[in-house]
Design goal:
The chain is α+β, with helices and mostly antiparallel strands. It contains 3 helices and 6 strands. Helices cover about 55% and strands about 25% of the residues. A 4-stranded antiparallel sheet has the order 2-3-5-4. It has a two-stranded parallel sheet with strand order 1-6. Strand 2 and strand 3 (about 115-125) form a beta hairpin.
Length: about 190
């Protein structure tokens, strides 16, 4: 009997240790599985955040690289707040071309489709070559103009020289006057 009771006790202790070891294994298995899932979730969140940060950094670097192009592009548009600067640029074309240029009228407006435009009329006087240079400068101005009318006439108000030319003085070229009515189509409010 003694051997039966020793065997039973050993069997009971072995069973107890197996149950304890199995419980510990199950507990650690569940704990590790939960930690692995939590780590996987954190890893995916880190991946999303780093992806967002890299996209933001990429967008910022692209924006920094494109800033000169954006400034060039915005220079082609005339904003309502920049009308004074625009008129100064137009008035500077007078000395560049050698003409006396004045802006006669400046009128912002809207079309039926609510597209804004800026009508302006300029008048300039000078020699024929200077007046033509002014027209070329207006044509190449960094804005989109619609040419409404161009009126080029010989200025009759300029003094006409007598038929007797002095010996050393060359006769003056006749003065020409140009009136141009333009519409700036790249005007924005």
């Amino acid at each position: 009997m003694k051997s039966f009771s020793k065997t039973t006790i050993l069997l009971g202790v072995a069973l107890f240790l197996t149950i304890v070891a199995g419980s510990a294994y199950a507990f650690f298995f569940v704990a590790m599985r939960d930690k692995t899932q939590a780590t996987a979730e954190l890893s995916s969140k880190i991946g999303e955040i780093s992806g967002k940060e890299s996209r933001i950094a990429s967008a910022l670097s692209i924006l920094k690289n494109e800033t000169p192009d954006i400034e060039k592009l915005s220079a082609y548009f005339i904003k309502e707040s920049e009308i004074v600067a625009f008129t100064k640029k137009i008035e500077e074309l007078g000395p560049q071309s050698g003409t006396k240029l004045t802006i006669v009228s400046l009128d912002p407006g809207l079309t039926e489709k609510t597209v804004s435009f800026l009508n302006f009329r300029i008048k300039a006087t000078g020699e024929f070559a200077d007046v033509m240079r002014l027209l070329v400068l207006l044509e190449n101005f960094p804005s989109k103009f619609e040419w409404k009318t161009v009126r080029l006439v010989r200025d009759s108000s300029a003094p006409v020289e007598e038929a007797v030319p002095p010996a050393k003085v060359a006769p003056r070229a006749p003065e020409w006057m140009v009136e141009v009515f333009l519409s700036a189509l790249n005007f924005t409010k």
